[in-house]
Please model this.
Amino acid sequence: MRFRDINGQQPAELELAPMIDVVFQLLIFFIVTWQYARFERDMDISVPSAQQAENRDRQAGEIIINVRKNGSVVLNGIDTSKDQLLTKLQMISKEYPDQAVILRGASDADFQAIINVLDVIKEGGIWNVAFATVKPE
Model:
């Protein structure tokens, strides 16, 4: 009787094509998420803290407006003037009437600068505005 030799089996070969596919998919995933998160993070902005702050799920197509300490306005990572902001928001509100906007004002920014941007948002026809805060440590 002839028994199978356990040690006589061929060693399994490592398939490189599926591994390369997975690596490229991970690379694409990280590049896309980095681009998405880059618009929200502005190193000059430290949002104020609030006891009732909560992390909500992000909606697709949210507009993030940052107001820096010096009063400059950043729309999705691009410095804009108030006139440029108004024209962009008017175009967006015509296409998407329920467009969500997140207003991130620096905690040490002038309150009047934030109110001025809020006026521009209202004038642009956007009604769905949220203020970004963080939980205190």
